[in-house]
Amino acid sequence: MNSRTLKSLTVALASAATVMLAATSSSAAGLPWSASHGNATADGTRSLEKGSGIFSSTLVVQGELKNTGPGCYSLWSMAIHDLAPTPARKLATLCGPGSEPVSFKTHYAPTTTALVYICKDEGARDCGQQMSLTTWPIKQTAPSTAAAE
User: Fold this and answer.
1) What is the per-residue pLDDT for 126?
2) What is the pTM (predicted TM-score) of this model?
């Protein structure tokens, strides 16, 4: 492995660890997520259940799929673990106006990317934008008054 690749990998892993630490403290109450396509929307909260180590947490997603018009819409999720995508899975389908609860969990590590998206009908051909469930806000610390003087 050349030094450039090793440096890039080190920076990526350090960034992921920082995000994981920030996510653990800031997502305890649940952070909002949302997706939309056509007449359908989905939204809810996402949080982490901390495991015994940095690579053993669980991403917990709760929410609701809503349709305001005719036709069928499905909510799908996909996770990418260590750059390897898992097969997409359909979480819920709703035909016609109404709402359907959604709840799922997936393994989470600093190298995980989890996505949700809505597709028209039951197939995954006509779909909206994929929305990340693993983009965490990073809390900024207030500057020290001693440092400002």
Assistant:
1) 93
2) 0.72
